[in-house]
UniProtKB/TrEMBL annotation:
Gene Ontology terms: biological process: translation
PROSITE patterns: RIBOSOMAL_L29 (PS00579)
Gene Ontology annotations for the cellular component aspect, listed alphabetically: cytosolic large ribosomal subunit
Pfam family, one: Ribosomal_L29
Signal peptide feature range: none
Family label: Belongs to the universal ribosomal protein uL29 family.
GO molecular function: structural constituent of ribosome
Protein name: Large ribosomal subunit protein uL29
Keywords annotated in UniProt: Ribonucleoprotein, Ribosomal protein
PANTHER family with a match to the protein in the record: 60S RIBOSOMAL PROTEIN L35/50S RIBOSOMAL PROTEIN L29, LARGE RIBOSOMAL SUBUNIT PROTEIN UL29C
Amino acid sequence: MKATELRTKDVAGLQQELSDLGRAHFALRMQIATQQNSNTAQLKRLKRDIARVMTVIKEKQVAAK
């Protein structure tokens, strides 16, 4: 996911995206812990996506002030 795609969404859409990514992060951690998924690179990519969404949310909140 790219930051330019995220910047076109409103804050409510970004909050929903963050919630979905959080659930996916939990599920992926459980898969890795139970050794059902050996691709740990997905975890790194997912964490970066979460940080990217949080950054765009913060940018929008600061710009609204």
